[in-house]
Amino acid sequence: MSINSGRLFRLFKYIVYALLAVNVYLFWSEEVLTAALQFPNGIAPLSLIDAYAATIDTAAWVILLLMFELETYVLEDDHFNPVVTWSLHGIRIVCYSFILYAFYGYIVNLAFVNAATQLGGVSDLCALVSDGWSYAVDFDEYTALSAANCGSFSDADTFMHFPGMPAVVDATGLMDIRRLAWVDVINAAVWLIVVLVLEADVWLQERNRFEGASLWISNVTKFVLYSALLIAAIYWGIKGDFVDFWDAFLWLVAFVFIELNVFEWRQEVRETAQQGQIRTSS
Predict the structure, then answer these.
(1) How many percent of the chain have pLDDT more than 90?
(2) Positive or negative, the Cα torsion across 159, 163, 167, 172?
(3) Which of 91, 124, 197, 255 is most buried, with most CB under 10 Å away?
(4) CA 246/CA 233 separation, integer angstroms
């Protein structure tokens, strides 16, 4: 029994896409717990992005990824009538709106953790148990303090308080959280630049102009951008945030597939052009 390598490749690709869709739920399950602590009186519509930046961002990216998959692989050139073309572009514009909205949310989260101030009069976490406080064990991850666990989080004698919520962390933990918040902002910004470059690639490829200098500039730029994204993924892995590391790794794999789609599309266009020249000359 032989295995069709093309089908196996497509199966692997779509499994990666499905896992990215699952990550929407994973981020939501994390953020819904944080939102309950950060917004005890409910979330106002304008604060949704503050509470669910990663969920909204990931959902928009999954839809955008599927749009790129349709345009660069699934649909043939003769499928691109005005309705299909404008539909793909319209959905992508909506996705970009939510991605930019989520990027703003990451900036808001960064400002939030940077606004932490020292909690006066407290030198022992166990003193906060009876008042319903929590400890920030990671960025956007809090554990309620109890008599059983209050002595296990930190041996510091001063703590930082996050504004507007009953949550504390020691200075070392706050530094790690701020770094992770910065990585979120930088990672989101780099991905925005990646899709701008990819949009340019698709635009040029549709007009048979993705050659020479434009191809070289695109490849060099994306090498730098993907390297930055890989560094971010490695950092999340070192810091022990598995969901962020796993998500970052899957997105890199997914966009490798999109890059391969564009490469294959470019090869097909070149082969078609060469065949046309042969028929003309004969």
Answers:
(1) 38
(2) negative
(3) 255
(4) 8
